[in-house]
Specification:
single chain, about 325 residues, alpha+beta, Rossmann fold, Tumour Suppressor Smad4, 2 domains, 6-stranded antiparallel β-sheet, 9 helices, 18 strands
Length: about 325
């Protein structure tokens, strides 16, 4: 009599970005934990520019992808995950790990591995700007300037504190710029320090785009900081951390599915910490675009935001 056939073991592509802040950490114990239930295929890190192509090329070998890295690593993989629909397991090895925080994925690596093994993945939205996907937040203005100034060495050496050190220096030099914001059948002319468009909740190593935002609500959360003095922004910081900046008179907020931002001259757009395109910037939401192993969504994820606006018509 033939012995019973062993149950199917899921196959996982296992990739780690050695350039992430904790990318050189020992992952032996985590690999052992994952290997107890998964067949792991180690894939040498191909570089951010090639990671999505690698996922597409090797999709037939796997049932899921496990990535070790930070928000930039995950952003680089987003298009490959969308095209293949392979579920994603996250090992947070970056500086801020904002996507992991939005989805309540533990920063403890063994606990994060347990999440990958625990059950079915969740559908998660993707934001998109000019064809480039983003997981957390895309920004124009101050945050884009910060992304350009914050070197990889500063991230590795100072961690999240590095954001604050560089931001304080840039803040004193920042100036308002003119933007035209098209959404939901209207055009708004503003003078702003920064506009941000969020898919998830957290970004920038501790900021919150909107207190009730989730990465699976099918909406983009927009805000514009129309402050005229740098000290006013300092007063706003506690609200920016909590995601309650929409209660301030000089912060414009709304929720939508599409928005276009035009500026008088091209300005860079920062997505998940990387500069990927320039204005004019066309943002849209891709609902339930990728699958991610994460804890169950919090109960309020289906509640409407007080800033909810009519859905975009385009």
């Amino acid at each position: 009599m033939m012995p019973p056939r062993p149950p199917h073991r899921r196959r996982a592509l296992f990739m780690v970005n050695p350039g992430a802040r904790q990318g050189t950490a020992s992952l032996g114990a985590v690999r052992d934990l994952l290997s107890a239930e998964l067949d792991l295929t180690d894939v040498r890190w191909p570089g951010a520019a090639a990671i999505s192509d690698t996922i597409r090329a090797r999709a037939g070998e796997a049932d899921l992808v496990i990535l070790g890295g930070g928000d930039g690593t995950l952003n680089a993989a987003a298009s490959g995950l969308f095209d293949t629909q392979l579920p994603l397991g996250v090992l947070p090895l970056g500086t801020a790990n904002d996507f992991a925080r939005t989805l309540a994925i533990p920063t403890d690596l063994a606990a994060a591995a347990d999440v990958v093994l625990a059950g079915a993945p969740r559908p998660i939205d993707l934001g998109e700007v000019n064809g480039h996907p983003f997981l957390n937040v895309a920004s124009i203005g101050f945050s884009a300037d910060l992304a350009r100034a914050l070197t990889q060495e500063a991230k590795r050496r100072f961690g999240v504190l590095g954001y604050g050190i560089v931001a304080a220096r840039l803040l004193m030099q920042s100036r308002l710029f003119t933007a035209f914001i098209e959404h939901d059948g209207q055009v708004e002319h503003v003078r702003t320090l920064q506009v941000s468009v969020g898919n998830g909740r957290h970004y920038g190593g501790g900021m919150t785009v909107e207190a009730t935002a989730t990465a699976d609500d099918g909406r983009l959360d927009f805000y514009s900081l129309e402050v005229d003095h740098w000290w006013r922004l300092l007063a706003l910081l506690p609200s920016l951390r909590r995601g309650t900046q929409g209660t301030w008179d000089d912060v414009r907020t709304f929720r939508t599915t599409q928005v276009v931002v035009r500026t008088s001259r091209p300005r860079p757009v920062n997505t998940d910490g990387e500069l990927v395109t320039y204005t004019p910037a066309h943002f849209r939401i891709r609902p339930a675009a990728i699958l991610v192993h994460a804890p169950p969504a919090p109960a309020f994820s289906s509640f409407p935001s007080p800033h909810l606006q009519p859905e975009g018509s385009a």
